[in-house]
Amino acid sequence: MMRFSASVAIDARPRGKRFQGVWLRPEGGEVSRYLVAYRASPWWRPFEGQRVDVVGSPWTPDPRTQHIMAEHFRVHSLTVADPNAQPTPRWVKMGPKKRYIGTFQRRSGDPGSKSAGDRWTVFVAEGGLSFALASPEPGADGLGTRQAISARLLTPSPFAAGRAGPAMWVIDRSPAE
User: Is the separation of the CB atoms in 49 and 7 below 8 Å?
Assistant: First the structure.
């Protein structure tokens, strides 16, 4: 695993074949930029323009496949270098992509609390740990049924409002067997 500081840049708009690169621009070093994603997926957006500390590893695409001619990098984790930056970043850390099994469940605010009357969806992993969703909520088809998901855990800024506890961005999901 490599560790370095970089800034996150996202191409302004998609180009041919919908390529819209997400790049790390390391501070110093031999490589001027690493390609970390071919699509500007929403979980990258909160880190755009931020200076970050990155942990991950370079990788080489299979030469028999179509790919962009660039240095590729697989991000394990990414942490905002200055969580006091202005404007305040919503998320200050993105963890590795992991697989979980559990259910999406609806929650409600307790009467008399600040969240009274509010309803939201959480993911409850096997073992009971509950995660707030940073990603869009699943449709009704995902509620209450056992799901296998891939997600990245996100750490909220201590200066941004939000629900307490760990949060995740669900990348993909399917019914668990």
Answer: yes
Q: What is the pLDDT along the chain (177 residues), one digit of tens a residue?
A: 999 999 999 999 988 788 999 999 999 878 899 999 999 988 899 899 999 999 999 999 988 988 889 999 999 999 999 877 777 778 899 999 999 999 999 888 888 888 778 888 899 999 989 999 988 877 767 788 899 999 999 998 887 777 667 899 999 999 887
**Cα dihedral angle (123, 157, 76, 7), rounded to 10 degrees?**
140
Helix, coil or strand: residue 130: strand
3-state helix, strand, coil in the chain (%, to 5): 5, 50, 45
Q: Is the dihedral of CA 137, 141, 143, 148 positive or negative?
A: negative
Around 3, how many Cα atoms within 13 Å sit in the side-chain half-sphere?
3
pTM of the shown model:
0.83
Region of 112 on the Ramachandran plot (φ > 0 left; ψ -120 to 50 alpha; else beta) = left
